[in-house]
Design brief:
Length: about 900
């Protein structure tokens, strides 16, 4: 036994020991267990692969199972996106830990450049300050202080989800080690010519004062206007043009028409004059123009529109930028310089109206990009930035997915991946921020560029270039956050250093994240991982969907439908939330989440708890045999000899074996939700509702040996089931396991117990078939009792014609009597029996059951009740028939109202027929 395991018992607090020995309370209270259990798991080192190997749980020679946690931004609190990520990844980690693989789940957080800087700037604004007031160094210090506060908050929230990651290896994207990795990657790409500086069109947020990524642009439907105006021609006359952004007219460098548009062919090659500033521009032909939109003439502004930018490149047009970084117009806008872009729109349009150039304004709904962080309208802007040439990186990244080295789950997203990667454009990686990784570029007095790992190296390169020391200025920009997080799977393991962790745990195994960042993050990790390490960064990409409300809407504060995971955990427990997220989702599909489902899974936890409480109470004071093993990770209850097993025992053991195999198969096929649903069905319906009820017959009987055999089966199936369910619901399963004194005293923890092995010897199809037949019969009798309103505790008579199944029914008659609530003195069981008069006939499981009506109901009272109900139905039928006979109703009422009345009449007649048949039987 390992040192860790031998020290386990003293680690328990007196309260924990007392709780384990005392009778289980009637209701499971997550608040009493969750935080306490988590602290104990963490203190024991169970999350560390080294401890797993030392204790004998994991095979040191086995391939490790590794997940690099998608790092949440340090800007806010845990939300349901984090919760589903945590649930899925922890479920996988716990499962593979139980399989005996060394498991490593590396946590961490992202500095989230633009988002974090915005939050701190808003905080400063409340004090009447700007970042410029503080200066770069002091401002960055402010952001670090803010980061420290919110980072601690996030990790506390993650612990409440029960995630078993290795906190000793936690990383942050601005850690020294990760910062070194970022610089190294930049320098390598720069020296290969894959990073360059150039002026191109970017998404620009005037409020943030920075370029932003495509992911940080949210498109919303906006009620705007379509402005149609006259564009003067140099030779006289004009053409009509439409636009949604009149201010960009000032940056036009051409008009374009479709080459096949007969209306405008004669204009191609002629010259137009930009309204109000009279700059001459050509009229060109380009197939991009949609003749059906607006007037069919397109104003081309290459410096402020992505499509126009491409037209400008094709036709070698000038690229004019009319806008300053703050959203005001610059000198290129002539008399409108200095105006805000929206003020300029109004002023220019008014001036054009006075000049007789306005044709009309129409209401127009269109998609407008907004900054995800501050909700400012984003401006396509020509800007000098740093870029990565992505085509050379995309080729290998496409190949590893195409040849199966990396598998994307679900596979349908491979098409999306290939489409993006095959049409990839260069990546803008510079941001005009102060918070983040400073670009490792220094400029000499004459603008010479020096890429260096630090300032000292830059100075050495400058001296070599100039022949003397010179003053250098570092590029003020920082790198796009996606650049640093693109290195995440290997930078967190120590790359570019050849660390033991990097050698042991890279490549990682699974990258689990939302499908919405397949390109923005996953693809970039693959490209950079292959380029920097020569290896794929992970072998599987598991994509989950978005969590929506029960109506399928995206959760947002404006809709008031946001569910806070911590509130749900406080009310229902972490297990209930985890199980809901895991079983309510399938790979790549959005899920609808409702409080009702979380509540139902809280009830499931209580159902298991109550079943376990029943078992524990029946084990109290009795010596329970354990299966022979020296493995502290595989301690379970022994099974009695096969000759001591009842049909119910053999059935539940067979169902356990089948469930184990099916759940294992589904997990291996990445059908995590379906596996969880199988466990729910097995535990709730088969173990709790059927087997425990069947077990009571022998437990409360006079045969002590039979009762003990049943206890062994009850305990064995419960303990093995807890192992299967543990990755889904870790807290309630561990809490129950601690009450199973025989195993918890010898074992280390349920968390470090082995995943149940194949139970081939327990599979018995004949037992499942025979017990299934009994279930069918019992269900049929129970349904009949319900239909005739028989009191639950009342026993009734029955005549059973069993045919070839007579031996099975005779052998299990006590079970049938008890679960169907039959009167032993009034049950006749034979191979063949005639049908008695006035009896309900049931056919189920190949058996015919007759229930004499006199034994079910008071015949006179039942006749009177049915006759009264029949009279009421006849009255309702007459009213409905009368209504449908009226021409005015049928012709004037809405069609759905008429159809609803017809459907109602059909239902009334069917019910009338049923009651007549019941009366005839009586």
């Amino acid at each position: 036994m390992s040192t860790r395991a031998s020290e386990k018992a003293p680690e328990k607090t007196p309260e924990q020991t007392k709780a384990a020995q005392a009778a289980m309370p009637k209701t499971y209270n997550p608040q009493e267990w969750e935080e306490r259990l988590y602290e104990w798991w963490e203190s024991q080192g169970f999350f560390h692969p080294e401890q797993q190997e030392e204790s004998g749980l994991a095979d040191p020679n086995a391939e490790p199972f590794v997940i690099a946690m998608p790092p949440p931004n340090v800007t806010g609190a845990l939300h349901l996106g984090h919760a589903i990520t945590s649930s899925i990844e922890d479920m996988l980690i716990r499962h593979h830990r139980m399989l005996g693989q060394p498991t490593l789940w590396i946590p961490g957080t992202d500095h989230a450049g633009i988002a974090t800087q915005n939050v701190v700037e808003r905080k400063l604004a409340e004090q009447g300050l700007t970042r410029q007031d503080l200066g770069r160094e002091r401002f960055v210090q402010e952001v670090w202080a803010w980061k420290d506060e919110y980072h601690d908050r996030i990790t506390r929230q993650q612990r409440r989800m029960g995630i078993s990651c290795d906190w000793s290896r936690e990383r942050f994207t601005l850690d020294d080690g990760l910062s070194n990795a970022v610089v190294e990657a930049f320098i390598r790409l720069y020296e290969e010519g894959l990073i360059y500086r150039g002026s191109y069109l970017v998404n620009w947020c005037p409020r943030c004062g920075s370029a932003i990524s495509d992911l940080e642009v949210e498109y919303e439907e906006v009620k705007g206007k379509l402005y149609t105006f006259r564009y003067p021609l140099k030779e006289g006359g004009y053409v009509e043009v439409s636009t949604t952004r009149p201010e960009t007219i000032l940056g036009d460098t051409a008009l374009a028409v479709h080459p096949e548009d007969e209306r405008y062919k004669h204009l191609v090659g002629k010259t137009a004059l930009v309204p109000m500033i009279h700059r001459e521009i050509p009229i060109i032909a380009d197939e991009h123009v949609d003749p059906a939109f607006g007037t069919g003439v397109l104003k081309v502004t290459p410096g402020h529109d992505p499509n126009d930018y491409e037209i400008g490149k094709r036709h070698d047009l000038p690229f004019i930028n009319i806008m300053n970084p703050d959203g005001t117009l610059n000198a290129e806008a002539g008399p409108y310089a200095g105006l805000d872009r929206f003020e300029a729109r109004k002023k220019l349009w008014e001036d054009m109206r006075k000049a007789g150039l306005v044709v009309k304004e129409e209401e127009h709904v269109h998609q407008v990009g907004h900054c995800q962080r501050c909700h400012t309208v984003v401006e396509p802007l020509l800007s000098e930035q740093w870029w990565v040439k992505t085509k050379p990186l995309a080729g290998p990244a496409i190949q590893v997915v195409r040849d199966g080295t990396i598998q994307i789950i679900p596979r349908r997203f491979e098409k999306v991946y290939f489409h993006w990667m095959e049409n990839i454009r260069d990546w803008c990686i510079s941001r005009q921020l102060w918070w983040g990784h400073r670009i490792p570029i220094w400029y000499g007095p004459d603008g010479t560029v020096f890429a260096a790992r630090n300032e000292s190296e830059a100075l050495e390169k400058a001296i070599a270039h100039y022949g003397e020391p010179v003053k250098l200025e570092q590029d003020p920009d920082v790198l796009d956050t996606w650049f640093s997080s693109g290195l995440w799977p290997f930078s967190i393991l120590g790359w570019p250093e050849d660390t033991p962790d990097y050698r042991r745990f890279y490549p990682t195994t699974v990258l689990e994240t939302g499908y919405d960042i397949l390109f923005f993050w996953v693809a970039r990790m693959i490209m950079l991982g292959l380029k920097m390490t020569g290896k794929e960064p992970f072998r599987y990409v598991y994509l989950h969907g978005l969590v929506r409300d029960e109506q399928g809407r995206k959760m947002s504060k404006s809709l008031g439908n946001v569910l806070d995971p911590l509130d749900l955990i406080a009310q229902y427990g972490a297990d209930a939330l985890r199980f809901t997220l895991l079983t309510g989702s399938t790979p790549g599909n959005d899920m609808k989440l409702s409080i009702t489902r979380v509540e139902a899974n809280r009830n499931f936890a209580n159902k298991i708890w109550n079943a376990a409480r029943f078992v524990v109470m029946n084990l109290e004071g009795r010596a329970m045999a354990l299966a022979h093993t020296e493995d502290i990770h595989n301690v379970t209850y022994a099974l009695p000899p096969s000759q001591e097993l009842t049909l119910a025992d053999r059935w539940i053991l067979s169902r356990l074996a089948t469930t184990r195999d099916e759940v294992t198969r589904l997990i291996n096929d990445w059908q995590l939700g379906e596996a969880g649903r199988h466990l729910y069905e097995f535990l709730w319906n088969e173990y709790c509702d059927w087997y425990i009820e069947a077990a009571k017959i022998r437990l409360y009987g006079e045969d002590a040996q039979a009762a003990q055999a049943t206890r062994q089966v009850l305990a064995h199936v419960l303990e093995q089931s807890l192992r299967l369910l543990h990755p889904y619901m870790p807290f309630v399963t561990e809490a129950i396991w601690r009450h199973l004194e025989a195993v918890s005293e010898r074992g280390e923890s349920l968390m470090t117990s082995r995943w149940p092995q194949e139970m081939t010897g327990l599979r018995q199809e004949d037992a499942e078939e025979d017990f299934g037949r009994l279930q069918e019969i019992i269900r049929a009798i129970r349904n009949a009792r319900s239909e005739y309103n028989v009191a639950p505790g009342r026993r009734i008579s029955a005549r059973i014609s069993a045919g070839e199944h007579l031996p099975v029914l005779e052998a299990n008659l006590p079970l049938l009597l008890e679960l169907a609530r039959l009167d032993p003195a009034q049950v006749t069981l034979a191979e063949s029996l005639p049908a008695p008069e006035k009896a309900v006939t049931l056919t189920a499981g190949g058996v015919t059951v007759y229930l004499p009506l006199a034994g079910l109901v008071d015949l006179a009272a039942e006749r009177k009740r049915l006759e009264k109900e029949l009279a009421q139905l006849e009255q309702q039928i007459r009213r409905s028939e009368e209504l449908l006979s009226r021409e005015g109703f049928v012709q004037k009422a809405p069609a759905q109202v008429v159809q609803r009345e017809r459907d109602k009449l059909a239902d009334l007649r069917a019910r009338h027929q049923q009651i007549q048949e019941r009366l005839a039987a009586l």
